[in-house]
Amino acid sequence: MTQEDVLIRATVGDARVYAVTTTHLTQYMNEIHGLSPVAAAALGRTAAGALLLAATMKDGEGVTIRFKGNGPLGEVMADATNYTVRGFVEHPEVMLPLKKGKLDVGGGVGHEGVVIVTRCPEKGMPFNGYALLKSGEIAEDLTKYLYDSEQTPSVVALGVLVDKDGSIAVSGGYFVQPLPGASDEFLETLENNCMTLPYVTELLRSGHSPEDMIRLIGKGMAVEILDCHPVSFHCSCSREKVAHMLEGLPEAEFSSMLDDPQTEVRCHYCGKKYLFTPEELKALPRKHAKLDDAN
Fold first, then answer.
1. How many domains are contained in the chain?
2. Mean pLDDT of residues grouped by 10 in the chain (295 residues)?
3. Rounded to the nearest 5°, which phi and psi values hold at 148?
4. How far apart are CA 114 and CA 96, in angstroms?
5. What are the disulfide bonds (predicted)?
6. Contact 134, 144 (CB under 8 A)
7. Are 45 and 200 in contact (CB under 8 A)?
8. CATH label of the domain that carries residue 93
9. What is the CATH number of the domain that holds 270?
10. Closest by CA position to 178, among listed 157, 155, 158, 207
11. Is there a single domain that holds both residue 50 and residue 185?
């Protein structure tokens, strides 16, 4: 596992195609969150999906994907912008038996619930799209979301292979988005190419790069590689942001913290801990200081 994680953007005939490898960043999340194999697969797929969707937007704009299913993993969330991503699983320790020899991501996420995709444009307010879960397998649900909520026929394929020792062997995926007005003949060729591709994990395990995957998707068609960007894990948390969050806590909750020798706040995205003494808490400007506890 030596090659860096990268995302490639390309055109294949009358379609936009994006492909990404996320092995290193998924392994990093695996380590900092202490993920079980099924949790690692769920978060790795979601993170790759977030990077792929964010690649369709302008620099500085981002995408957040939240899976809220009825499975034991609870919420699975990834947040991507500028070719970086962060994420978490609500219950990262959950273990499930294999299903037909594979990790049961659908069983972990759940077959009922919603996927929420938040797009954050450079200007204006973020906007949410929703779709009911189809399988909990992540890629299938994102494909359904794009069709149901954004009226965009697409193909999303994602995969994470977890080794027997719990480490990430390979992780990545691709996203195919035909342009409006594409001919039926082109769409049929594109669909056939996608349907005959091996699983993402098989492609990556056998040494295929994101560019290789794109050229397989575009077999028999004009392929133009537009650009290639390194991708990585990055968390934007900071002591200042945590302090700002503490400033807005209800008075009763805030006051109870003053009785402790120090207050620890842990970022659920990266695990970083921030410590505040009672004196530091008292120095924060309080947004709710004048509110009655009953309110």
1. 2
2. 85 97 98 98 99 93 97 98 96 96 97 96 87 97 94 93 97 96 92 95 97 96 96 95 90 88 92 93 73 41
3. -75, -45
4. 21
5. 235-237, 267-270
6. yes
7. no
8. 3.55.30.10
9. 3.90.1280.10
10. 155
11. yes
